[in-house]
Amino acid sequence: MYRRKKRRIIKASKKGMELVQVAVLIGISVAVGIIFRIQITDFVNAVFDTLNGGGFI
Fold this sequence. Notes:
By secondary structure, the chain is mainly alpha-helical. The protein has helices at residues 2-35, 37-53. The longest helix is centred in the N-terminal third of the chain and has 34 residues, at 2-35. The N and C termini lie far apart (70 Å).
């Protein structure tokens, strides 16, 4: 009986750790996006300008 309880606790803690890892990764990606916002915008605009000027149509 004790082993089953322990397994449930370990499973629950693993799920909790996965949730924390996802939250940390989302936080890091938001922070990087905020820090490099101008560079990202310039890059995207340059890519779309190049695609629009390419004359594919």
